Amino acid sequence: MTEQTIEADGITLCHESFGDPSAPPLLLVMGLAAPMIWWDDEFCEQLAEAGFHVHRFDNRDVGRSQWWTGRASLPLAYFLRSAPYSLGDLADDAGKLLDALGIERAHVVGTSMGGMIAQEFAIRHPRRVRTLTSIMSTTGARNVGLPSPRAALAMLAPGPRTREDYVTQLVRTSKLIGSREYQFDEDHFRQRAERTYDRGLNPAGVFRQLAAILSARDRTADLRRLSVPSLVIHGTADPLVHMSGGRATARALGADLDLVPGMGHDLPREVWPRVIAGIKRLATR
After folding, report:
1. Which of 5, 117, 129, 233 gives 20 to 30 Å between its CA and that of 97?
2. pLDDT digits (tens, 9 = 90+) for 192-234
3. pLDDT tens figures, 12-43
4. In the predicted model, is pLDDT for residue 112 greater than 80?
5. Which residues of 198-231 are buried (b: 16+ CB within 10 A; e: fewer)?
């Protein structure tokens, strides 16, 4: 299915689906500054082959979904928890998308910031979540899931001015935070960067999304109250969100925890079968 723009209760979201519409719906939620195409087409197709009707979308402020307004201050976000919008607002966007698609309940899978959004969605709308899978994410507690200094600096690097600068920077950053024990496919990340740039970059939106992360509350207590079947997946070599974030998420949810040896802050093709099998196993309990 090709991309389509959906008006969802006051917000415009870009969406795409894969697989049999009669199969159980599965919503994929992507992370910071990342459009939906960072859920690789082949990964989505393999999830569809595993028996899901797969939905991916651009969060607000990225790609072809609606770009927001308001200036973000990262110090204000961290110290005063003040931001143009919250992770809860992003979670509500996901709910509005499901409403527009006529989906009452879905399996929800989020990665990185998308994992935070997925957790918030489950807290706000527990009856709409069939299962929750949180990948390379954390609880919002400020003593877990901390980035390495080098990874943190990479996230705060000045935005590139040209297409080629963006491609070069994204490839470099992807290699820095990615899985060093797996082969780095530079051509793949270059093509992803080119496609991302061509779909539209929103540097101010990146800071608004980052402010939403920095201003987020600790979700631990609310996660403990959930009774949603859950799975947490995290790499043991993640430099951007330390695996302590994944451990804390699993403890709070009472979830299965799959620590993937050598995986960084990405989903290498080699681990796709393991991730998809985990999602399917959770869904068929």
Report:
1. 233
2. 999 999 999 999 999 999 999 999 999 999 999 999 999 999 9
3. 999 999 999 999 999 999 999 999 999 999 99
4. yes
5. ebebbebbbbbbbbbbbbbebbbebbeebebbbb
Indicate whether 283 pLDDT > 90. Answer: yes
User: Distances from the Cα of 17 to the Cαs of 97, 270, 275, in angstroms?
Assistant: 12, 23, 19
> Alpha helix locations (H) across the chain?
41-49, 74-80, 87-101, 113-124, 149-155, 163-177, 186-199, 203-214, 220-224, 243-253, 272-283
Q: How far apart are CA 274 and CA 192, in angstroms?
A: 23
Closest listed residue to residue 241, CA positions, set 145, 142, 140, 116: 145
Q: Is 71 buried (19+), middle (13-18) or exposed (0-12) by CB count in 10 A? A: exposed
C-alpha to C-alpha distance for 85 and 87, rounded to whole angstroms: 7
Token pair for residue 159?
A: 């935005």
Q: What does each C-alpha distance from 257 to 67, 138, 147 come to in angstroms?
A: 35, 13, 20
Rounded to two decimals, the pTM is: 0.97
CA distance 28 to 212: 19
CB count within 10 Å of CB 140 equals 23
Residue 45 CA to residue 23 CA, distance in Å, equals 13
Beta-ladder partners of 233: 135, 258
pLDDT value at position 156?
84
Distance CA 116, CA 86 (A): 11
Domains and CATH numbers, the chain: 4-146+203-284 (3.40.50.1820)
Give the phi and the psi of residue 180 in degrees, each rounded to 5: -75, -20
